[in-house]
Amino acid sequence: MSEILPAGSTIGILGGGQLGRMLAMAAARLDYRCHIYDPADAPPAGQVVPDVTCGAWTDIAALERFARAVDLVTFEFENVPAEALDAIEAIVPVRPGRRALSVSQDRIDEKDFLTGIGLTTAPYARIDDLPMLEAALGVIGTPSILKTRRMGYDGKGQMRIDRPDQAKRALELLDHQPAVLEGFVDFEREISVIGARGADGQTVCFDPGENMHRDGILRRTLVPAEIPEALKLDAVLLTGRILNALDYVGVMGVELFVTDRGLVVNEIAPRVHNSGHWTQNGCAIDQFEQHIRAITGMPLGDGSRFANVEMINLIGEDLNGLEQYLQDAIHLYGKADIRDGRKMGHVNRVRPLG
Amino acid sequence: MSEILPAGSTIGILGGGQLGRMLAMAAARLDYRCHIYDPADAPPAGQVVPDVTCGAWTDIAALERFARAVDLVTFEFENVPAEALDAIEAIVPVRPGRRALSVSQDRIDEKDFLTGIGLTTAPYARIDDLPMLEAALGVIGTPSILKTRRMGYDGKGQMRIDRPDQAKRALELLDHQPAVLEGFVDFEREISVIGARGADGQTVCFDPGENMHRDGILRRTLVPAEIPEALKLDAVLLTGRILNALDYVGVMGVELFVTDRGLVVNEIAPRVHNSGHWTQNGCAIDQFEQHIRAITGMPLGDGSRFANVEMINLIGEDLNGLEQYLQDAIHLYGKADIRDGRKMGHVNRVRPLG
């Protein structure tokens, strides 16, 4: 697909959570209809699109019907099973491509890829069993973190190991799944870069944001990040290198640790990213529209930042405190039930530049 | 209704064109569902909302069903028949209220209201027949414009009169509908102010924009308008006076002529307005969200301008020239058929302040 997807075409989105919802709203501005595929029967994105298919990720017949009903497929989360993608891709193009998806689905593949292109990650070792873990702890030391290779997000599937004798218990708590042991990175800050690469190879990055987590969940992103300009440029260049190496088409989130020895890549997400929500009120073209532009073959838009923004996630009961944010730009996800740790919405607090 | 409409509630929107579509997208960000009522069976706004009722403005049963399915009603155009509103208002609140609607639905009532609160309009006279028109032409002179009192928009229902002997023909061409004769205003520029008034009486205006028309249809809006700051303040204050006098709740567009004797009010529109589309990419809170905030009882948001914007309407075949605007913020309306004079979309060309 080298031409621009015609207006009026339908984009299939795998996953109907808040990211799919905001992607669909951006797509509507460009006159693309969206069709959501989600296992839930009333996903948040379903409220803003003409079509929803409710189906399991293993329901190949439903996935094929969905694929035949759309002109192009993208996804809001990287853990779509390979079999689902195989079924879809036999019928309709999927963007971003499989390479980025497979790399990001497995923490070992991801780190191998990143170090393979000369970037720095935390020290890591593949862990299949207790002897491998004990040996790795001897090299990487403690404290360190044992993570499942696959399906981890928002701090799930992770165990911190403070002493070597916790190794056995950690493996048990992760159900002996294939894992990776990661050395602890002593970082000053976490930043992220939201990068976009178009079908023509053009690459654009939004300004790096500074992220604050609690309980493994992103709480706030601040732009500008309070780091030297040279470091911001490093972060952007490094993101460009990742996008190019993967021949990527779409938006990607790259999480980075700022350490006294430079930038360390934490992880990459081949999709729009929570830490890029500030772009909705800080840029003419936000990350959601940039993603739609990239996958449809449109040129990327102007993502330069025209305001300072503090993005504040509304997690679970935070939603009940919405009155303190009524002056800010509010983005709610249409989720009826408040649950602990559930992302209910976010607000962007916008201030003039400078 | 003095409290904030609860999240998850449904807002009914009368009219499913591009204004209804953009209102619905703003409402979704605040977790309000929208239900569109429109005589067309696939209106543009229908693509981005969960519910659409297709019904005529005279179908009281359908209007009543619609009213019972929603928590609050607003409208995207001011020519909703009074009978339709009567049926709806017996069941559910309508915002903005009837006063502003009835005033803006009739050009004589509108001018009587405006002059009644001390504002300047074009000289005008009520015209019911040829003798009245001939007498009025003697006072107001030529060139002047004969307009139907009701249902005019985008230059429709208007006849320019250059010589008194054209009076009879002008009345015929307007099918002898009740009309108003308006004197020609010799203006340097046309500007407009998009004002918002909350349920609590708080009033906020966006920066005045400068409008360029062709064939009676808005083509471009520029912010900032190239007029003295004092005149901008006059325009904003005058808009506030209109909003207050009508006890208005919602967003209103006020079109003004800049003349060498000051500002002359051309017309008011009790709804979001084409000349306010620039706010989507020039302000943290745009006119659509401001309207939703006002009618739901939320406080108004920050509508200060953080960028210079040129809004360019895409009329009819303009859409086929979209490639020249691919670098700009694009807003398409999801209309399948290009027709002469039909508003297909707009783009916002954003530049840094200064």
Secondary structure blueprint with pairings:
2 copies of one chain form a homodimer.
Chain A: E1 10-14, H1 18-29, E2 33-38, E3 51-54, H2 60-68, E4 72-75, H3 82-89, H4 98-105, H5 107-116, E5 124-127, H6 130-140, E6 144-148, E7 158-161, H7 167-173, E8 179-183, E9 189-197, E10 203-205, E11 209-214, E12 217-223, H8 229-245, E13 250-259, E14 262-269, H9 279-282, H10 287-295, E15 307-315, E16 329-332, E17 343-352
Parallel strand pairs in A: 1-2, 1-4, 2-3
Antiparallel strand pairs in A: 5-8, 6-7, 6-8, 9-10, 9-11, 9-13, 11-12, 12-15, 13-14, 15-17, 16-17
Helix pairs in contact in A: 1-10, 2-3, 4-5
GO molecular function (chains A, B): 5-(carboxyamino)imidazole ribonucleotide synthase activity; ATP binding; metal ion binding; phosphoribosylaminoimidazole carboxylase activity
Keywords (chains A, B): ATP-binding, Ligase, Nucleotide-binding, Purine biosynthesis
Pathway (chains A, B): Purine metabolism; IMP biosynthesis via de novo pathway; 5-amino-1-(5-phospho-D-ribosyl)imidazole-4-carboxylate from 5-amino-1-(5-phospho-D-ribosyl)imidazole (N5-CAIR route): step 1/2
Structure description:
The structure is a homodimer of 354-residue chains. By secondary structure, chain A is α+β, with helices and mostly antiparallel strands. The first copy, chain A, contains 10 helices and 17 strands. The first copy, chain A, folds into 3 domains: 10-94, Rossmann fold, CATH 3.40.50.20; 123-183, ATP-grasp fold, A domain (Dna Ligase, domain 1), CATH 3.30.1490.20; 189-352, D-amino Acid Aminotransferase, Chain A, domain 1, CATH 3.30.470.20. Chain A has helices at residues 18-29, 60-68, 82-89, 98-105, 107-116, 130-140, 167-173, 229-245, 279-282, 287-295; strands spanning 10-14, 33-38, 51-54, 72-75, 124-127, 144-148, 158-161, 179-183, 189-197, 203-205, 209-214, 217-223, 250-259, 262-269, 307-315, 329-332, 343-352. In chain A, the strands form 3 sheets. In chain A, strands 9, 10, 11, 12, 13, 14, 15, 16 and 17 form a 9-stranded antiparallel β-sheet that branches. Chain A has a 4-stranded parallel β-sheet with strand order 3-2-1-4, sandwiched between helices. The first copy, chain A, has a 4-stranded antiparallel β-sheet with strand order 5-8-6-7, sandwiched between helices. In chain A, helix 2 packs parallel to helix 3 and helix 4 crosses helix 5. The first copy, chain A, is globular. The termini of chain A are far apart.
